[in-house]
Design goal:
heterodimer, A: 256 residues, alpha/beta, B: 222 residues, mainly alpha, 11 helices
């Protein structure tokens, strides 16, 4: 027991830290919703440009907290402009590096095989609909967009008692797939990941919410800026755009 | 199903939990002993403070660890300036996070075990002229070993399952800092349900084996 502890301590003490060098692959912090697409795009980065980056996938808010705390991240890609705006206001982005690379739609999903009881947003107000899952508007970008959609449809007051807030989009999908809620509001790309379990009943009109765009930027404190730029270039390349399109993302209309 | 990333996550989980448990034992057994044997002002306050990581949501603990140990942190800032190294986003960060959340289990159980030792034996040893340290190592702690072992097993289990604080301080970097719980979270979040189920099955099996082995070792030693 004591020998084992001593051995483990020795292993721990011998782990020598090594500062990052320029030839290292980039570290990309990205929203969880980008996981599948970014992993594919990462494989496109040539080894001359640092090779496929390492990814840190998480909730956009957590990623911002890590970056503020000094995490050695090169590139940040978030699921909403808000988190990127936070960092930009603090001067933590490389000026001129921020770009919107993809867009998304908000859709209303119902359990697969639920029939046509819900075909429009307004149907949510019907007496037969008891629970509607949305993201928590305070913490989840999809929740903020959902709140805007309901407000523009004039449904906020009618639906307030029915809304079940979730901490992430996967929770909403799970509840809808299992029929624990009658409907939920998620991104079009999320609905695509559970084709056999949920079906899209309606798509929110584009003018009923702020544009759902995904910004990416190089961080001012990037330890490997060249490798970071190479990844951003891969995301914006025709091959990168094709990967994003295959995962259901819409092209971003450059708004900045 | 079980690719290289899954196996590296499993290996990392076992390594992190083992090292964290060793460090927890080194820090927690003496602390539990002192809390159990000595009366000093502020003892219960200290005990309550040590237990706080059990109460706080792990994500919150992780956030405060960033404030403390990040490159811009209270301790992490000076460390980074002197050595150019920061614990954030390294596998060692997973050890730190697991250590902080597992330590209360060790301290609480060893304190209770030390307090349960019959004082007659301790007094006898001291009357025979043995020092406090000798008595602790040869009488008190051996008599409390079952409780202390239970604390170590609890700490190991908690370290294996550590998620929230690790996610914040170590990040979720596949092949580098993704422990098994983080890999499972990543698979679920990426909509890879089959992969997530396979990871859960593997992790549950290995954890059950590890805990069974630990129990068997403890029974053999007791």
């Amino acid at each position: 027991m004591k020998t084992a502890a001593a051995l483990l301590l020795a292993v721990f003490a011998l782990t020598v830290a090594r500062p990052a060098s320029a030839a290292d692959p980039a570290l990309v912090s990205a929203a969880l919703s980008l996981k599948a697409a970014f992993t594919e795009i990462g494989a496109l980065v040539a080894s001359a440009a640092g090779g496929p980056p390492a990814f840190n996938f998480g909730a956009s808010g957590d990623l911002v907290a890590q970056i503020r705390g000094g995490a050695p991240v090169d590139v940040f890609a978030s699921a909403s402009p808000k988190d990127m705006d936070d960092l930009e206001r603090s001067g933590m982005l490389r000026p001129g590096s921020r770009v919107d690379f993809a867009a998304n739609e908000l859709v209303l999903v119902v359990p697969a095989g639920a029939g046509g009881r819900i075909a429009r947003l307004a149907d949510l107000a019907a007496a037969g609909v008891a629970r509607v899952a949305v993201g928590n508007a305070a913490t989840v970008p999809a929740g903020r967009y959902a709140a805007e959609v309901l407000a523009s449809a004039g449904l906020t007051a009618a639906l307030q008692p029915k809304l079940v807030p979730a901490e992430n989009v996967r929770q909403i999908l799970e509840w809808v797939a299992r029929g624990d809620v009658d409907a939920g509001m998620v991104y079009a790309t999320d609905a695509m990941t559970r084709p056999g379990d949920v079906s899209v009943a309606a798509t929110a009109p584009a003018d009923s919410h702020q544009p759902i765009v995904y910004p990416v930027a190089l961080l001012a404190s990037a330890p490997r800026p060249d490798a970071g730029r190479a990844f951003i270039a891969a995301v914006l390349s025709p091959a990168g755009r094709a990967v994003l399109a295959r995962h259901g993302f819409k092209p971003a209309v450059e708004t900045r | 199903m079980l690719d290289h990333a899954a196996l590296s996550a499993l290996a990392l989980s076992l390594r992190v939990a083992a090292i964290a448990t060793a460090l927890v034992a080194l820090a927690g057994i003496p602390a539990g002993y002192l809390l159990g044997r000595r009366r000093f002002p502020g003892r219960e306050l200290l005990d309550a403070a040590i237990t706080l990581p059990l109460v706080l949501p792990p994500t919150v603990v992780g956030y405060y660890l960033i404030l403390l140990l990040g490159r811009n942190g209270l301790l992490g800032g000076p460390l980074h300036r002197w050595t150019g190294w920061s614990v954030m986003f390294t596998w060692e960060a997973a050890v730190v996070a697991s250590f902080v959340v597992a330590l209360p289990f060790m301290i609480k159980t060893s304190r209770a075990a030390v307090e349960a030792v019959d004082p007659m034996f301790v007094d006898a040893s001291r009357t025979l002229g043995h020092s406090e340290l000798w008595t602790a190592l040869r009488v008190t702690l051996p008599l409390a070993r079952r409780g202390i072992a239970a604390g170590a097993i609890l700490a190991f289990a908690r370290a294996m399952g550590e998620f929230g604080a690790t996610l914040m301080l170590a990040g979720n970097i596949p092949g580098r800092t993704s422990t098994m719980p983080l890999a499972i979270y990543g698979a679920v979040a990426g909509g890879e349900w089959g992969h997530a189920h396979a990871l859960v099955a593997l992790f549950t099996g290995i954890s059950a084996l590890a805990l069974f082995g630990a129990n068997w070792l403890v029974r053999g030693a007791a």
